[in-house]
Amino acid sequence: xxxxxxxxxxxxxxxxxxxxxxxxxxxxxxxxxxxxxxxxxxxxxxxxxxxxxxxxxxxxxxxxxxxxxxxxxxxxxxxxxxxxxxxxxxxxxxxxxxxxxxxxxxxxxxxxxxxxxxxxxxxxxxxxxxxxxxxxxxxxxxxxxxxxxxxxxxxxxxxxxxxxxxxxxxxxxxxxxxxxxxxxxxxxxxxxxxxxxxxxxxxxxxxxxxxxxxxxxxxxxxxxxxxxxxxxxxxxxxxxxxxxxxxxxxxxxxxxxxxxxxxxxxxxxxxxxxxxxxxxxxxxxxxxxxxxxxxxxxxxxxxxxxxxxxxxxxxxxxxxxxxxxxxxxxxxxxxxxxxxxxxxxxxxxxxxxxxxxxxxxxxxxxx
Length: 367
Hints:
elongated, 2 strands, Serine Threonine Protein Phosphatase 5, Tetratricopeptide repeat
């Protein structure tokens, strides 16, 4: 019997091209008497007009909640009482950003920029909203303006470095990150993203050093602890275990840490402890595919075929095309003498993944 393991991995791409003509107009904002009114939309950052004129202010509160958060109610009151104070719109946009309400944040940003285009932190907020919306090139443009307006705004440099990293522009990323750390030598995220750049370039020792420095600046930086745990999972399992445990202590909903620690325990021969972590994952997300798979897989390795089948049943019910779960359930059926069911699963695997060697071998073995 050859059981089939599960696999997984992350990392996304982001665009960071800066259009020179648009930037030139943006850079002039607040630096001359000409007012460039920024019109923010979900589609992109557009300069609608350059010239004088009375700005339009949107004071509508964009919310569907029948009972408003007291913090939002206070922010609404401030906007109503001083509709031409840009900082009120900025604070409310920050609230919407923090609570995941990106469209109302855009409404406030549009009003904000019709009143004031001189502050770097306003452009930083705009960039953060665009990142959440996936409008990465617009985010980079806003960050470029923010850093020109205030070269000491560390967060803007660091965010540019993050975007460049995600777009695999590692030299640019390192330049922006170093600029951010010049502005704030204690900026934890600056060291974290330097660690990620080093890691992508295969410089493991530099990466470890950067992640450790990140944790020195911010002891509960879960992402840095997670990366250190992953880096040590093969050469120092005890240290990896401690890093994963610390992540879980800081953030009990960080499911990747539960999975990583469970997988580590599973590999080290502690299936009961591993299953405890997988069950913790399932208590937070009952249909988590990795947790369901590994629950079934650990019971399969132990020869507890009924329990293995039960967990694979749950995963296949949630994802009928999960061919690894079908393959392993087929093995559990085969080992428990249910050959017809085993054959059905192996044949279903071949429908999903034609030519899958392990399924072909299993069918030939049973026949």
